[in-house]
Amino acid sequence: MKKWKVLLPQPIAKAGMELLEKSDKFEVIVFSSPDMEEVKRVAGEIDAIVVRSGFKVHKELIDLAPRLKVISRVGAGLDNIDVAYAQSKGIKVLNVEGINALSVAEHTISFILALAKNLFEFDRCVRQGSWDIRYAYKAFELEGKILGLVGLGSIGKEVARLALALGIKVVFYDPFIKEIGGLSVERIDDLQVLLRQSDFVSLHVPLNEDTKKMIDEDELRTMKPTAFLINVSRGLIVNNEALCKALQEKWIAGAGIDVFAEEPPPLDDPLLRLENVILTPHVAGLTKESSEKVALQAIENLIKALE
């Protein structure tokens, strides 16, 4: 029996790998790290490709793969895949939605707690012997504060649920959401109004032409000077230059950033030198539990589509 050739430019979590490798229907090609030249070399032989966020499937690669039938994304975001071109070639593009929502939501809440309690500055000061920072009273309570969610999809809903348990008031802006699932949240139909009201603004929208740089200089200037911006969505949703300026000139109090316009960010990115921002390496959805579940679902999607 002829086997389908499946390419993984990067390894995926163990559960997904095991499901793929135990089947006698597949020949699996795995690279330890993304190498576009190696991928191009085998592209003409592959029937399917399984990709994480760190690898781009663009027009050039698709044209090199005439047998390609399925692209299965390990995760929800599709901004690293030329979806329209793939579909024009009859290639199915599949993703996994909702499975890592809790992990991303918990990461968002971790940012909110760390920023409210000033944890990272306190940590630095203790290590430097600056014990008197405890009398600066920089931490504040979350009860009664306002969290503005930009996007109320599966992740936004989980963030709202967790925030409400902390006594935070939750408002949201999302023109595409009609059903809020019984959550005690308030809809705001004007993004600028949400930005003016919120003590924390958290982004949970996909990257597309409408959302690219939707948080720019005007939006950052609209926020309270005591407010914090959180981005666990995609780096290009925020204008990085404007964000750096906002943090340096204290238009806003701080930020929690998990995603970047360029990943990893260049070492000369001014964002890396600022102390009023917490940075993590696009890891919000990469808990042990969610990585296994997402990888497993991505392979199940692949198998079902090929069969």
Describe the structure.
The protein contains eleven helices and twelve strands. The protein is of the alpha/beta class. The chain has two domains: 4-97 and 288-306, 3-Layer(aba) Sandwich (Rossmann fold); 101-279, Rossmann fold (3-Layer(aba) Sandwich), CATH 3.40.50. The chain has a seven-stranded parallel β-sheet with strand order 8-7-6-9-10-11-12, with helices on both faces. α10 links the parallel β10 (228-231) and β11. α1 runs parallel beside α11 (288-306) and α5 packs across α7 (154-165). The longest helix is centred in the last third of the chain and has 19 residues, at 288-306. The protein is elongated and about 70 Å long.
Which features would summarize this protein structure in a list?
seven-stranded parallel beta sheet; 307 residues; 16% strand; Rossmann fold
The amount of helix comes to: 25-40%
The counted number of beta strands is 12
Give average pLDDT, whole number.
Answer: 95
Low-pLDDT residue spans: none
Sheet of most strands: 7 strands, parallel
User: What structural class should be given to the helix and strand makeup?
Assistant: alpha/beta
**Level-2 CATH architecture of the largest domain:** 3-Layer(aba) Sandwich
What is the top-level CATH class of the largest domain? Alpha Beta
